[in-house]
UniProtKB/TrEMBL annotation, chain A:
This is Porin. Residues 25-56 form a coiled coil. Residues 1-25 form the signal peptide. Keywords: Coiled coil, Signal. InterPro entries: Porin_dom_sf (IPR023614).
UniProtKB/TrEMBL annotation, chain B:
The keyword Signal applies. It comes from Ramlibacter agri. PROSITE patterns: TAT (PS51318). Residues 1-27 form the signal peptide. One of its GO terms (cellular component) is membrane. This is FMN-binding protein. Residues 99-180 form the FMN-binding domain. InterPro entries: FMN-bd, TAT_signal. The lineage of its organism: Bacteria, Pseudomonadati, Pseudomonadota, Betaproteobacteria, Burkholderiales. Pfam families: FMN_bind. Keywords: Signal. GO terms for molecular function: FMN binding. It comes from the Bacteria.
Amino acid sequence: MNQKLAAVPGALALATLALCAPAQAQSADAELAEQVRQLRAELQQVRQELDAMKKQAAPVASTPAAPSWSGSPAPAVVPAPAAAPVAAVAPQANAGLSLFGYGELSYSRPTHDTANSVANVGRAVLGWGYRFNERTRMAAELEIENAIASSSDSGEAAIEQMYVEHDLNSNLTAKAGLFLMPAGILNESHEPTRYFGVFRNQVETAIIPTTWRELGVGLQGTTDQGLRWNTGIVTGFDLTKWDPTSSDGRDSPLGSIHQEGQLAKARTLATYLALNYSGIPGFNIGGSVYYGGAGQKQTGFAAPDATVTLAEAHARWQPGRWDLSALAARGRFSGVDALNATFAGQPTPVPDRFGGWYAQAAYKVWSAGEQALWPFARYERLNTAEGYSGLPQGLAPTAQPDTRTVTIGANYYLHPQVVLKADYMRFFDDSSRDRFNLGVGFEF
Amino acid sequence: MPTRRHTLRRGAALGLGAGLWNSAAFAAVYLDIEQARKLLLPEAASFQSWPLALDGAALAAIAQDSHTRVPPGFAPAGWTGLDAQGKPAGWVLADRVTGKYELIDYAVGFAPDGAITGVEVLAYRESHGSEIRNLAWRRQFVGHKGPAQLRFGEDIRSISGATLSCQHVTEGVQRLSALVALQGPHK
């Protein structure tokens, strides 16, 4: 094509010169006329091919994120002298913007108390990310819990995450903002397609307050051998929120005093460290430790130096059609004696310790194309209040037995990102809580 | 062979590390396509462009054979590797897929019989799921021929916490594998 185009002006000039020359012989005229005819035909063909090329080029250019691959390592768009990305996206108005989200809906029917059956739009989350350049980006999630958030409803609108992230090099990333703590299996991967059962497991709800996020700065490093480490300095909990008259602290000690980036008291900050190893495909093992102030040095507060420690370890193994996982988490409040002394006689003082563990097995019994059926079973044992300090004998609430639960059910994936769920939860220590659950979830 | 690949990989990593630390802008860029091609087809002495014909019929066939949805803007690039004697030593295809919400650039090498010689991640733009760069995870693809041998969760294991990246790269490799089976120069 290019050769043809280049040949045309030369040939035309040659023809023009030939035409301007004085007529010499009849045969020469005829030859020239034939050449001009050929050139004209050739030019017409070249024009047609050029038009066809223009038509083909138009839709390609308008396709967002269409990569422009290059055989040479020097594409023009991104200045990267040593090694530019091979696919340089042409700059466009929305090239760096992406949307994502998830939703989960449920129906829950207590088998011994059917009058308390509930149907709920548990979570609707819309996330967006924007890539400012090849190494700086932001991500945020807006969440509505329980369908409606207003002063007369029990719903909640929340910013679940909002942070800026920057690659310091290819193995080290820094972030600042409101982000999820790297604790447990679910907290960072909490979308409904990622876990078995209609509701998140109790240990990663009551002990690790999933979805747990804090404001601060964090670092993440990875190694080629499959090790990921996370560390950072973030806001902590606010123990002044503890309500000894409510059952919230017993349902989830840390969930009842988390700050979630809302005018968070930040006199005392917290630190965390998490390690995860994923160097063997289908196998992950990891753990994390969090430590930080919860009293926030508040004047007039009985426990200004109180602290929270939370540690957990987890493993997940996916051999063949199996998906096996286990997690243990343990938390501790320190420096709460004087505060608990003021809570004497109240139903919910601050516990010294809380913790629990679970083991879960799922098996893919059937799959066809994008669909798959995964029955599962999970055993959980947890206790949100394993004793109290600062309370004289007789004034502390009676220690509660461990909550032991078996959940049996199935996830039916219509698509890897769309799931229908059903399960039955049996509470060994309180059968009034036994329930049957149905759910729908999706993620994109 | 592995020794040579590892040497190349180390050399590339060192060169990249030194060059990228002070570069003005980069994603989590690990390799450029020339380096990736050498790693994927070390026996190739040279590469020439392999023009791919991706009309509607071809895209439909790729979708059907790979059991995946072909994403908008699907535009892989292909090269034929030639050995010192000028004979085809295999093929390299480069493509990109969305991980959770950002693009992942990757390249796949194919032996003359269509079996995968390796998968290289060229650029990654999210912090979550970057574990797909692990050699152990990418090594799972080697030797598999055709999309039916690349089923996510069965032939290719996932990484906990990086599910979407693993799934989408696997589906991308399935599409490229289907493309090689359909249009490979060996056909």
